Amino acid sequence: MAQMNMIEAIKDALRVELKRDPGVLLFGEDVGKVGGVFRATEGLQAEFGEQRVFDTPLAESAIGGLAVGLATQGFRPIAEIQFVGFIFEALDQMFVQAARLRYRSGGRYNAPIVFRTPFGGGVKAAELHTDSLEGLAIQTPGIKVVVPSNPADAKGLMISAIRDNDPVFFMEHLNLYRAFKDEVPEGEYTVPLGKANVVREGKDITIIAYGLMVHTAIKAADELAKNGVSAEVIDLRTLVPLDIDTIVASIQKTNRAIVVQEAQKTSGAAAEIIAQINEKAILHLEAPVLRVAGPDTVYPFALVEDAWLPTPARIVKAVNQTLQF
Length: 325
Prior knowledge:
EC 1.2.4.-; oxidoreductase activity; thiamine pyrophosphate; Transketolase-like_Pyr-bd
């Protein structure tokens, strides 16, 4: 297998699908000749032509609208929103038009669209470039939400997302783009949407995370192991659909859990996951399920973001609170 970082794995997935299906189109701001702000599409316009990989005006609402229109005509658009903080201009097209298209048309039309966007902090970027807005998306019926944590999953999930007949909000953490390389299967390779991955087995507590926070959770699990605490770490991979069965199975074994998210604490993915745990596994719990999350403030400027983001130390503290309950 090839060694790739996440950017290279995503580009490989896009190339595989552009080559396989002539209905796949890729567009957004500077994705063509420049290859995107992070070079995720570099070389694809030269390989597949300006009719299939092309630049758009600096207008996110137009990008979203174009994606919806193309989807109704049988294409599979991949629309890049350059940074997650810019999606507000396209929310109507993404969360109202695309997400409701199949329901509104009684199944006559699908919206097989992938909305790609980088998100997340830790890279000292300006605040609108580093938000975590998955909470908005998971509250929107009709749209799937994918957050990979490693290159192999990024490729497999991206190909599954492109082939899906519903719109997918594909969130790529900025801090993972070039963080490390890993083995990635070559050619066509899929990871199913809605299937979590137990990345570390444990018996004392379950740590549930996604995206960059999976790696923060693993670092915390390493620290906990030094004191004899065996933590199981679950990488959710997708927030919608949520693999609650894997979460419940883990809690039936460990009887304790915490949920880690980079986003602000209130009404986010962690809140929904804890609610579902309470509905389906409360009799297996020996302590309340705690959240480790960002504070309920605007994402801060670079000078103080290290103090804002969840850390392994904060996860260890929450785990110890749960174990001592």
